[in-house]
Design goal:
By secondary structure, the chain is an alpha+beta fold. The chain folds into 3 domains: 99 residues, Integrase, DNA-binding domain (Double Stranded RNA Binding Domain, 2-Layer Sandwich); 43 residues, no CATH class; 75 residues, Nuclear Transport Factor 2, Chain: A (Roll). Helix content is 36%, strand content 28%. It is built from 7 helices and 10 strands. It has a 5-stranded mixed β-sheet with strand order 1-2-3-4-5, covered by helices on one side. It is elongated and about 80 Å long.
């Protein structure tokens, strides 16, 4: 059997299990394509898995890509190419992958790091634990820090917030051009803190004149990357208004 050829899904599917009498555990086949080092390992049971072999700092290395069937040839090549890009940048993809695996999830960080500390420093630590179990853990508990996005945080904030008790202020700055009105910016304020320590701060801002978006704890970003954020914000605002939570005042001053 030819051991180097251009992989296709049909060809790989037709490959029979590795010879049971062979001294080697798996049959190794090479993909004849632009991504050098991409291999398919065929087991005696008929299992097939992709592997990338590469050299990093004069040492031969390999990294698993995935099982054929779970991913197809095109996906395997894309993953292999990402690994090759890291190698070109001086990063070992296997070390990077292992580092990702050791990164804690939100639940792991909360129970192993955060909770032991607040138990000794915060009298109301049980409330933090209750809120985490009720709101954060079901939605984001299994998410690793590297995968956490500002959209995740915003949606979580909206889940936690009680609309009937929420105090918010929204500022609009409309301008007119040839009789047509448009918004220059939209700013959403919220109270941060508890009791007398609470203060009104800018939470979200969409500045259409400068092309910048802003989110508390995330900072500024280009508006073109804030379209999903705006949709969530607008949907929530309309829902709150229709339920009678907000009172809208229009002023030209």
């Amino acid at each position: 059997m030819q051991k180097k050829f251009k992989f296709t899904n049909a060809k790989l599917k037709a490959i029979k299990p590795h010879n049971k009498d062979s001294p080697s555990t798996e049959l190794e086949l090479s993909d004849d394509c632009d991504v050098s080092g991409l291999k398919l390992l065929v087991g005696k049971s008929g299992s097939k898995r992709f592997l990338l072999r590469y050299t990093f700092k004069s040492k031969k290395r390999s990294i698993a890509i995935g099982k054929f069937g779970d991913i197809d040839v095109a996906t395997a090549r894309k993953i292999a190419q990402k690994h090759k890009t890291l190698i070109a940048e001086g990063i070992d993809p296997k070390v990077e992958k292992d580092s990702y695996k050791t990164m804690p999830t939100l639940s792991e960080f909360f129970y192993k790091t955060y909770l032991p500390v607040i138990k000794t420093r915060k009298k109301t630590w049980s409330k933090d634990l209750e809120r985490f179990k009720q709101f954060i853990e079901p939605r984001l508990g299994d998410v690793r820090f590297q995968d956490l996005t500002s959209m995740d945080v915003l949606q979580l904030q909206q889940t936690i917030a009680n609309p009937k008790k929420m105090k918010r202020k929204v500022a609009y700055a409309p301008s007119s051009n040839k009789g047509l009105w448009r918004f220059d910016y939209i700013t959403d304020f919220t109270f941060v803190g508890c009791g007398q320590d609470a203060e009104l701060v800018k939470e979200i801002d969409f500045d259409f004149t400068t092309g910048l978006g802003f989110q508390l704890y995330a900072g500024d970003d280009d508006l073109k990357f804030c379209s999903e954020l705006y949709k969530v914000w607008e949907s929530n605002f309309i829902s709150y208004f229709e339920s009678g939570v907000f009172t809208i005042t229009i002023s030209t001053s």
